UniProtKB/TrEMBL annotation:
Family matches, as Pfam families: DXP_redisom_C, DXP_reductoisom, DXPR_C
Domain 1-deoxy-D-xylulose 5-phosphate reductoisomerase N-terminal: 4-131
Keyword flag Manganese: yes
Residue ranges annotated for the DXP reductoisomerase C-terminal domain, each copy included: 260-381
Cofactor dependency: Mg(2+); Mn(2+)
Residues reported to bind 1-deoxy-D-xylulose 5-phosphate: K124, S150, E151, S175, H198, S211, N216, K217, E220
Name recorded for this polypeptide: 1-deoxy-D-xylulose 5-phosphate reductoisomerase
Species annotation: Paracoccus fistulariae
Keywords for the protein's UniProt record, in alphabetical order: Isoprene biosynthesis, Magnesium, Manganese, Metal-binding, NADP, Oxidoreductase
HAMAP family on file: DXP_reductoisom
Function, in words: Catalyzes the NADPH-dependent rearrangement and reduction of 1-deoxy-D-xylulose-5-phosphate (DXP) to 2-C-methyl-D-erythritol 4-phosphate (MEP).
Amino acid sequence: MRRISIFGATGSVGANCVDLIRREQGSGAYRVVALTGGRNIARLAEMARDLQAEIAVTAYPDLLDDLRAALAGSGTEAAAGPEALIAAAQRPADWVLSAIVGSAGLAPGLTALQGGSILALANKESLVCAGPLLRRAADAAGTRILPVDSEHSAVFQALGNDSLDSVKTVTITASGGAFRDWPLERLAAATVAEASTHPNWAMGQRITIDSASMFNKAMEVIEAKEFFGLRPDQIRVVVHPESIIHAMVSHIDGGTIAHLGAPDMRHAIGYALHWPQRGALPVADLDLAALGRLTFREPDEIRWPALRLAREVMQAGGMAGAVFNAAKEQALDDFIAGRIAFTEMSPRVENTLSALSAQAGFAADPDDLQTVLEWDQAARQEAAA
Ligand code: NAD
Ligand code: MG
């Protein structure tokens, strides 16, 4: 019986994980410790009742009474607020899914690692903001981080037992998002609704818009560097509109190992859940003949300046990742709220990086969570419209 917790259970990734656990309910394989969510109390309470969770936590203190009422008679405890999220992450668990969106996911994930849990990491923001901090916490507690982002799960699987020393390059694929084929001059007028559609994946709104701007892929490049310990020049991005190949690992002997599969997050989540074994998952089979062909293009950095920024961030090191992520989150908030245009997000992030780097430089890697959160706040203020 493995004890598991899901942070961000009510979101797109979280709900896919809940779906997998539900399918194995009755096998006695899992005991659910904590489930967390945001404003959707009804969904959180329904999940907690269904999975007989020990505790359900909403991020919002003002919703505690609602959550209590929704859980009445269920045997599941209710709690609310950021401190309650940390307390939930301190409850002993064998496997913890980090699927909160944004840098709000950093503290709970780090806490789970410090307690020795395996951290299944969907929250890429954590590695972008504080990769060295997370890796040190995992090492100190004798545990590990497993990738849940589909491209990183694909790299992890394609690498297998091969040594990193034999790896020449790692290529992650990008669908190109909502505006892949739009004329460039239309992008400035792109609406939030238009940016919130994705050709292949059903995901939360924020990551869907980040796919249209390629900030998602930019974050994933940094995530790959932090997760696998690659050099920046080893990481490539190729646009692959079909999203069937998720990543490729190319070796010094000329061999390239690709990972293929239907675009369904339950594969990457389920792979981490069953690791180091493989378990049956409700994911569609690949039918390559029906697909007919797979296509690839070079990413266009005029259309997607975020990819260039990712390289600059890796070059700068230190706190640049935390600044990049926070400025991106702020610019995205401002785009969603109608304060800035779609095409203003990248310049905001670039200007924020320049401004904070000019003030203080990005020199040192983060030593503690507090430092990361301070830089995060400073970057949000600088980036705000
Ligand atoms: P989502 O918006 O669907 O869900 C986010 C979850 O986080 C919800 O449970 C929400 O209640 C919770 N949340 C939001 N703000 C919070 C806060 N301030 N404090 C605590 N909880 C908060 O997002 P998603 O698409 O499931 O993505 C979650 C994470 O996984 C993101 O980091 C994303 O980049 C990553 N990811 C998602 C996908 C995908 O297919 N959706 C794929 C790869 C990686
Ligand atoms: Mg991804």
